[in-house]
């Protein structure tokens, strides 16, 4: 029997990527700018919403770093961040010498909890420091509670940086994720919903901010014939080669989202009959998730003592990758000294949660291997 590795989420090429990359070679646009970069930015803009402006960058992490700079975050400022996320959401706060304030998740979306958020804002203000920005994350493609979070950010006038690295193609009330925040960011790393092999984008509401983002991401060179600099610059622009891959990937994005959603449906069906397992689903029809990763929570007390770690090992035995949910930032050695507001929702999710193989390229044979592991484990 074929026992090749089944990945959690692996690159899935559509077929036209090489055409764009070849064009870049043929025209010698092998640089961090060029027609593919402009083309990819336009594709993204068209896909998200004609009103926004998009800058293609070298990574999602670079986009968060630039985003915080554009929001005026400086050393000594406080920045609020969803605790349950990938460390790349929070690391740029540290690059800037600012202080992260971590917020728990809510049970419905697993994302930033509106109650804990407001409590934190009120308390930080009472201590004399108003948070400079809020980083909210659409984990696994599930939009955070945009309506409630927006009410709070409006009430206190604090801008939100929307980490949409995992949520390209997700939407809330028919508006695409990445376009809700003052700044939005996307990632095209190898295992994301589309990939440029490595890359990211920053999404902004106006042209001036985009120009500033591009300026900073290309070493902040003043408009003089010699190299003159009045700002600290960064080398964060996307290469024209990577952008070529991105243009090809945009042609299959919606199809790949449908395949991810089918994969999610496969698990929803399966776990209907299994006691003690809950799968992350959209709380109501306002939410539309790309279901980048399908994720479950196992309650060992209701599942005959079975734990998520038992299931992870059962998959590993069959050469199938699965992964615990993101370990919350306030539990990480590097971040544990920083303030945290919440009620252990994220901690409990982390203890009992597992991400399942969710690629848009899984074959029927691979789905059967996954199902067999689940059958042996639960039945
Ligand atoms: C992947 C990811 C990032 C970082 O994106 P890169 O392109 O890998 O730098 C940031 N936030 C979240 C939630 C992510 O999943």
Automatic annotation (TrEMBL):
The active site is at 192 (proton acceptor). GO terms for biological process: polysaccharide biosynthetic process. The keyword Zinc-finger does not apply. GO terms for molecular function: pyridoxal phosphate binding; transaminase activity. InterPro entries: DegT/StrS_aminotransferase, PyrdxlP-dep_Trfase, PyrdxlP-dep_Trfase_major, PyrdxlP-dep_Trfase_small. Keywords: Pyridoxal phosphate. Belongs to the DegT/DnrJ/EryC1 family. This is dTDP-4-amino-4,6-dideoxygalactose transaminase.
